[in-house]
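Could you help me review a protein record that somebody else here produced? What it holds is a sequence and that sequence's fold in token form. I have pasted the whole thing underneath without changing anything:
=====
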Amino acid sequence: MQQGNQTTPSGQITERIIQGDACVAEGAEWLAQAEPRFAHALALTGPLPLRLRPDGFDQLLSAIVSQQVSVASARAIWGRLQEAGLTSPGAILGKSVEDLRAEGLSRQKATYALALAEAGIDFTALRDMPTDEVIKTLVAVKGIGIWTAEIYAMFSLGRADVFAPGDLALQESAKVLFELEERPKDRALRQMAEVWSPWRSVAARLLWAYYRVDKNREGVA
């Protein structure tokens, strides 16, 4: 596993990259040793999922499709885009907003899809960029917020030390696990997560897993 959080003289990143289950297990063990509450959570959740997925244009387009709609609706719309061959920059650029709306996208999301296609992001180059540069590049595109950029860095690029404090499930899980009086907002949770470095993305996996365990324990689907 790559170590550190710097760049080499050639500019290539040396951040920790999660490449398999062993990396997640290493991070989980570190967190459990550093924080007793994480040890408690891990005992309840068991081994954490890898959750890695491919990188590239279609992953971000899929994230845009999924914004503020149900999982079922997102899958249905994404399926229509796939059937129409509209999952690449070239294909999207060949369509108008109305064309994209005809495939199920809202006017706003159709505009975002076109903005992403027009951005000309070099997705291969993102693999070698420091995480803060990755996020800066992505949020410059209309329709991509900090949460989407952090999730992309976490799961499509495998960055081990990125967190997504704007995620409501992470906020609620942290509230329960750390017995906080109220759900921590983005800024508070970001500060809280600083001590979980260099394994913040594993901490996120653990908090998500604990959130599901806690909800099941309450009898909530």
The two ends are 37 Å apart (CA to CA). The chain is about 60% helix and 0% strand. The chain has two domains: 21-51+161-217, 57-156.
